[in-house]
Design a protein that fits this description.
Helices cover about 55% and strands about 10% of the residues. With about 700 residues, the chain is an alpha+beta fold. Helix 11 (about 225-235) crosses helix 18 and helix 18 crosses helix 23 (about 395-410).
């Protein structure tokens, strides 16, 4: 019998790994995945083989489940059977994977509707995950009780033990109860059990888990406001084992009772390709990312962040902010602000001071701003950086926000964090830190800085470029260019411009190993739509553009700098690939090959044809964020040649792109452009702005929302 149980457990582990390794994957397998029907079938088979139990009702009769738990389990099994039957009926074949297109159909079939808080398919999937989570939880519980017997009335025999206090001890390396009735005598002792696991770096034994399950109904209002429970909880958050303890609380359905606001985001899903995990699991994984900053691996890879984390005075408040950062998602859009409104209530129950509550509220309310500004805005805009620093307020909060942003993005999914994003976050962090250390939120005088930069550049190119040419170069470009680039970079650009002379173009490629991208410099005579042509050449060669700075000198020379990587997110070192790019670029610039033909030759892959959640297109025009440019934000479904489609449209509209920032979230592309009109001015007229929006929607093949028409 022991061999059979061992084989079945190993078979279950292998099956879970094969089908995604989590209840909460984007397209779950209703039968074979974790939380699927196979889990409960395996549990019942083992119960029958070892104890002669026939069905769920008998499990309740024999004490393996409480009767109300058996009813919940049966309801969850019924739900999954309905889903599986509908899958087979809809597809006219044996299909057990709940793919995105099936999810949308199922949502309608099960009667879910769109509301302001969430769309129908997200409600359906939240319901699915709740039931799958129930099946996973109860299946594990049944298997555990098959091995150890029904809910135990006393701890098992202990070969080696160590007393902690009169109620708890460590038995064979696991926490157990010295007093079997301690939770009935004092419900707060349940929180102390988690605290001891965290403090002594041990897991709970099954007996302690069983007693918590039996007594968790005792988590009432008096428990929620208990100073002793709060002190233990904060000790857990400040420990080096916060994630394991919170995960155990979540698994035992303890956390959602203690913090009901967290229960509201349990199993909540976002119907897109970006958010791999449900909101509750993502929040716990974000805590784990913070915890990893204590590890040797992260100290090597993220030295700055680990150093900042070590200097945090009260890590428990940072961890609390990370745990709660997405609680507003149960209320739909504007989740950061809505979540922040819940914080005082939660912190009040935990007994935090007004100052500490304000810190946690700040983190929840502002948890998106560092990532959004770093990815979607011009980090060389000094006014923008100053406004960000002013919003943060002080260096301690900046450190906390930087750490939260790191943990949040790392916890979204395995492929979401990149060195490029990390470099952008770090750049904004250091620039804001400089402003805060300076102690003034005033923009530095350009007239004082520019002559020094020019002298330093002249020294670098001394013997290669005459001083007069350096002085002329500083008259050909706007001041912001010189403040945005290091002196060595300006010197390099100056030499490239000097080398152009009678050549049709110059293309330079170099690798940024630290930031993990490839930089491409294209220098040629400017023509309207030049950047659009460059994006078309890159798209035709499967090269992703991460960002671009488009510089036009007053003498008609264009100096475009692009940060790019491969479709797999790697630097591009293949010399043959760059030779093809240069040939295509030469042909396009010479007018030998229309760029449209190059873009068209790259057809869609099999993955592009796979059903995906639809991304609703949004076009926003902002004249406030920058003093010099009109900023156009475009969020839409990612697709082949998208950047070329947009840039060629902007070119046809007579707009000149100066800065481009490109980001993707799963299947959603966010393309941001800093533009001016033909006269070098921002675009203010409403009719002109409407024309720009309409043209972009039309180029993307999307219907413009009525409120924007």
């Amino acid at each position: 019998m022991e061999v059979l149980i061992k084989e079945k457990l190993e078979e279950t582990r292998a099956r879970h790994t094969k089908y995604g390794g989590s209840v909460y994957i984007l397209e779950p397998n209703v039968k074979e995945g974790e939380g699927g029907l196979r889990d409960i079938h395996t549990a019942i088979w083992l119960a029958k083989a070892k104890h002669g139990i026939e069905g769920i009702d008998m499990l309740a009769e024999r004490g393996f489940l409480f009767h109300h738990a058996a009813d919940r389990l049966k309801a969850s099994i019924d739900f999954l059977w309905k889903v599986r039957n509908e899958l087979h009926f809809e597809s006219k074949k044996k299909t057990d994977q709940l793919t995105f297109d099936h999810q949308e159909r199922m949502a309608k079939l099960f009667g879910f509707e769109n509301t302001k808080e969430s769309i129908a398919v997200e409600k359906f999937m939240q319901e699915y995950y709740r039931h799958a989570s129930n099946i996973s939880y109860f299946s594990s519980l049944i298997v555990r009780r098959c091995i150890h017997g029904p809910a135990l009335s006393s701890p098992s025999y202990c070969a080696a033990e160590k007393d902690i206090d009169r109620d708890f001890k460590i038995c064979d390396g696991a926490l157990t109860l010295a007093n079997g009735k301690v939770f009935e005598e004092s419900s707060v002792a349940m929180m102390r059990a988690f605290e001891y696991c965290s403090r002594f770096n041990v897991a709970m034994d099954n007996f302690t888990r069983e007693r918590i399950i039996k007594n968790r109904s005792r988590i009432d209002d008096s428990f929620a406001t208990s100073k002793d429970a709060a002190a233990s909880f904060l000790n857990i958050l400040g420990s080096a084992r916060a994630f394991e303890s919170l995960q155990e609380m979540h698994r035992l359905r303890f956390l959602e009772r203690y913090i009901p606001e967290f229960g509201d985001i349990t199993c909540r899903v976002q119907h897109d390709m970006y958010h791999v995990y449900t909101v509750d699991i993502h929040s716990l994984f974000a805590v784990r990312e913070l915890e990893k900053l204590r590890s040797a691996e992260y100290k090597r890879e993220f030295f700055l962040l680990t150093t900042i984390f070590e200097e945090v005075r009260r890590p428990e408040f940072l961890v609390l902010g990370v745990l709660l950062h997405d609680i507003g998602k149960s209320f739909g859009k504007g989740h950061a602000e809505k979540g922040a409104e819940l914080v005082p209530r939660i912190c009040g129950r935990l007994g935090l001071t007004e100052e500490d509550t304000a810190t946690v509220k700040f983190l929840v309310k502002n948890h998106l701003i560092l990532a959004d500004i770093a990815q979607y805005r011009d980090l060389h805009d000094e006014k923008l950086v100053i406004e960000f620093a002013k919003a943060v307020g002080d260096m301690e909060r900046l450190n906390l926000l930087y750490l939260l942003t790191f943990a949040d993005v790392r916890a979204v999914g395995p492929e979401v964090w990149t060195q490029w994003k990390g470099a952008l976050f770090q750049e904004l962090y250091f620039k804001a830190l400089t402003v805060l250390e300076r102690g003034t939120f005033e923009i530095e005088e350009a007239r004082e800085k520019l002559p020094k930069i020019m002298r330093d550049v002249a020294k670098i190119v001394e013997g290669e470029v005459q001083t007069g040419i350096v002085e002329d170069y500083f008259q050909l470009l706007p001041h912001r260019y010189f403040f945005s680039n290091a002196m060595e970079v300006i010197a390099e650009h100056l030499k490239i411009v000097q080398q152009l002379k009678d050549k049709p173009y110059i293309m330079r490629v170099k690798q940024s190993m630290e930031r993990h991208y490839t930089e491409v410099i294209v220098c040629t005579l400017d023509t309207h739509g030049l950047f659009s042509k460059i994006t078309g050449v890159m798209a035709a060669n499967s090269i992703n553009i991460l960002g671009a700075q488009i510089n036009t000198l007053k003498n008609g020379i264009a100096l475009d700098i692009l940060q790019v990587n491969s479709s797999m997110g790697d630097i591009i070192t293949d010399e043959r690939k760059w030779a093809n790019v240069e040939k295509d670029l030469a042909d396009v610039l010479a007018g030998k090959v229309p760029v449209e033909r190059l873009v068209a030759r790259r057809g869609p892959s099999i993955l592009d044809k796979k059903a995906k959640p639809r991304v609703h297109t949004r076009v926003d025009v902002d004249n406030e964020v920058s003093d010099a440019f009109t900023v156009i934000d475009i969020h839409t479904q990612d697709r082949i040649g998208l950047l070329y489609t947009i840039t060629s449209t902007l070119s046809r509209l007579g707009l000149y792109i100066h800065i481009a920032k490109i980001a993707t979230k799963g299947d959603e592309a966010a393309d941001i452009f800093y533009v001016k009109d033909i006269f070098g001015q921002k675009i203010y007229f409403n009719e002109r702005l409407k024309e720009i929006r309409s043209a972009i929607f039309q180029a993307l093949g999307e219907k413009q929302p009525k409120e924007e028409e």
